[in-house]
Amino acid sequence: MKKMYFLFALLLVCCSTLVQAQSDVMLRGKAIAESGEPVGFANVAVLDAATGNVVTGAIADLEGRFQIKTPAVGKYKLKLNGLGYLETLTPVFEVTGVAFSKDFGPLQLKADVKTLREVQIQTLRPTVTTAPDKMVVSVENTAMAEGSTAYDVLTKSPGVWVDKDGNIQLNGKGGVQVMLNGRRSYLSGKELQNLLQSMSAENLKDLEIITNPSARFDAEGASGIININLKKAQTSGLNGSVYGGYQYNRLSTFTSGAEISHKAGNWNSFGSINLNRRMNYRNMKMDRVFMNESGTTLFNQDGYEEGDLLEPSLRLGTDYDLNKRHSVGMMANVTANRERMSFNTESFLRNENNLFIDARNQSDSKYGNGTFNVHYLGKLDTTGTTLSADLDFVHISNTDEASFRNRYIYLNTSRPDSVEQLRNKNPTNYDIYSGKLDFTRQLGSKTKLELGAKASHVRSDNELRFFEVQDAVSVPDARRSNHFVYTENIVAAYASLSATLSAKWSLQAGLRAEQTESSGKSLTKNEKTDRSYLDLFPTLFVQQKVNDDYQLSYKYSRRINRPYYGHLNPFLFFLDPYTSAQGNPLLKPQYINSVEMTHTLKQKYNLVLGYAYTKNYIAEVPAQNAETNTTVYQKQNVKNLQTATATLVAPIHVSDKWEISNNVTGLYQQYTTLTQGSVVVLDQFSVIAATGHTVLLPHGMRLEVNANYQGPLVYGIYQVQDQWWVDAGLKRSFLNDKLSLSLNVNDIFKTQVLKVQTELNGNVNAIDQYQGQQSVRLNLRYRFSRGAAFEARKRNTNLEELNRTGGK
User: Higher model confidence: residue 4 or residue 665?
Assistant: First the structure.
């Protein structure tokens, strides 16, 4: 802890030095909304007081701050405006000499309700826009959002790719933090996928893709953060909507839900409820080659998986303004689902004794997630000093019950057929407690200091009970059963300093320290793994304004990815007689150092160049046993991963009725792996590209077409083949935009097929699967509202621990 205190004191000294060094002659200020939130990228013009002519000006940054070189001696006034805000003029001020400077402080812009409504109905926005520290994918009021889920939108975002287990990757790297309204989703892998699939995309405002987060954010997340901003009430009184939808992809899916918000006086409350029944399927083909001294064995498997998922969910929240500067609130998210899944496979084991295996697997899963938050936000003065606090509690329960019936048919021998019956039960519980405190203070007009601390406690209780069924009696199988308890405590603190050095240069430097204490214990085998480590995570962002049309930003960060709790369980999960998955209690965290340079032209076009080095990369490694012809999948620490990327974002404005968003990423990856005593180097250059077209048609119709291409990739020791797909959506509004009808077709040409393969010492493991993405969806939504406009506050808090409860 002494080391942490010393580092924070050092940052404060640097802060004081920078404040004293700031003596540029400038006009400065900050554009804010009526709620006190910054108005990013507002236009600020200096007008001649007598003629009203524009003398000079600037565009505010993301935080609403602006600085303009002082003009010649004379009388002037400032004019501020932005999309959705009324024009604001300051009183006349006089420049008296060459050394004149003035700090206008916060300048408030009032919302233009009429303009906001007209923009929503009559104009188009680029699907993808960029800010200095993030990329924003617009979702609100798009045809593709109608009837879609948050998961659908996420998988179509720039640089995002989802692997075969539902884990999200960004620019070819795993370990993405997914947040909701600035708060951690607390899940990953299949559990995160289930949560996002239960969330209607029509409740989404936008997605923020942050590849290099500041020290304010948890250090967890190898490739960055994807923050999903949900809609908030924009008018006082009672507002809401109800919707229903149907999707056909060879199976039938039904979606329904309602949302409501109410603002009265100092209260701002909201709620939403959804009930969906989703049917999904997967066609799978697997081929393996086993090499041994006695010859070659081939394993060929065809499988079909079908699931029936019932998903009710409830989200409630309220904020209360104690006064103009202080507010408190609470939120609750409750999600439950029940999924019945069948996975049937037909497998041939081809050697001197050919064997056919007919497997019939059934599973029944019950899942519940309760997330509760209490928060406080205080504006301690009028210069931007704020204090916020969050307390979080999360409880997750998940019970999987599965049965396996395997019939063995021997083709080349007289050995009689046999039948094997197995079953297991896997109850899992997570309890997560977290508290955090964040403090922000303006140090003069050009410097901001952020300080914060966080503490969290996690307990995971995971048990696997395995049985062999003999004569309809379940007999416990002690070899495959286990009970594992994992606890983790993390204490963190950070300091971050943002400073404007001149009209052309600004920086943000931060340092975050995290102390981790963890313990994993197998109660069945009485085995224990304890860890204790302190890590420092520096960040440095520098922005350079070359001119009004061209800006550069340079970013460096160090981050961590701790293993998912489920991956630490030493369980051996049975998939089929020749396939298993096993946890790894010795799994270590992976560490990432990344640098990035962003070129921004005309606040519209962006070229992002990046390089990242990952130590102890966590990847799935299949261990093939040529003697038993079995394969065990396990997460292991790959030696390292090097990734170089170049991402171009180039929107095109064809006309007022046609916008095109384009983004393309060139990606080079090199994995170095030590497996089975051999060093394996796997590298690949790839291209990931997407283009989205939004067209306004006659009679109030909106057409959207998205095309995506993902070139060949490497993932750990897997090689992933290229794939492409095209989606389209058509939306029409009625009754003054209160009623909307949308029709969507996904994966029109049925080309979104996932093909992966790996080869080690002549042993081959290849998988080819299609998850039923081709579908037709029809959705109907009715909106109601009454009341006057206002601006809801946006909070930015996060919780990291629950993000690691998934990944099974």
Answer: 665
| 806 contacts 187 by C-beta, under 8 angstroms | yes
Query: Which residues, 6+ apart, have CB-to-CB distance to 410 below 8 Å?
Result: 353, 354, 355, 416, 417
d(CA 499, CA 63): 12
Beta pairing, strands 473-476 & 482-500: unpaired
The CA distance from 363 to 381, in Å, is: 57
Distances (CA, A) of 46 to 72, 101, 515, 603: 11, 14, 50, 20
What are the backbone dihedrals phi and psi of residue 12, each rounded to the nearest 5 degrees, phi first? -65, -40
The model's pTM is: 0.76
Q: Band of the pLDDT at 224, cuts 50, 70, 90?
A: confident
Cβ burial of 30 (10 Å; 0-12, 13-18, 19+) is: buried
Higher per-residue pLDDT: 277 or 677: 277
CA distance 499 to 510: 12
Q: Residue 520: in which H helix or E strand, if any?
A: strand 505-522
At residue 767, the pLDDT reads: 94
Which residues have CB under 8 Å from 623's CB, separation 6+?
Answer: 631, 632, 633, 634, 676
What are the distances in angstroms from CA 369 to CA 565, 579, 806?
16, 30, 12
Distance of alpha carbon 489 from alpha carbon 516, whole angstroms:
6
Full DSSP string of 476-509:
E-TTT-EEEEEEEEEEEEEEEEEEE-SSSEEEEE
User: What integer is the mean pLDDT of 554-565?
Assistant: 90
Residues of the chain by 3-state class (helix, strand, coil), percent to 5: 10, 65, 25
Answer whether 355's CB lies under 8 Å from 390's CB. Answer: no
Distance CA 160, CA 137 (A): 12
**355-370 burial code (b ≥16 CB/10 A, e <16):** bebebebebebebebe
- Two tokens at 86? 């009324």
Longest dimension (CA), the chain: 106
CB 201 within 8 A of CB 150: yes
pLDDT category at 393 given cuts 50, 70, 90 is very high
110-139 burial, b if ≥16 CB within 10 A, otherwise e?
Answer: ebbeeeeeeeeeeebbbbbbbbbbbbbbbb
Vertex 133: Cα angle to 127 and 135 (nearest 5) = 15
Evaluate whether 799 touches 183 at the Cβ level (below 8 Å): yes
Query: CB within 8 A of 206, min separation 6: which ones?
Result: 136, 137, 138, 139, 140, 229
Which burial class, exposed, middle or buried, applies to 332 when counting CB atoms under 10 A from its CB (0-12, 13-18, 19+)?
A: middle
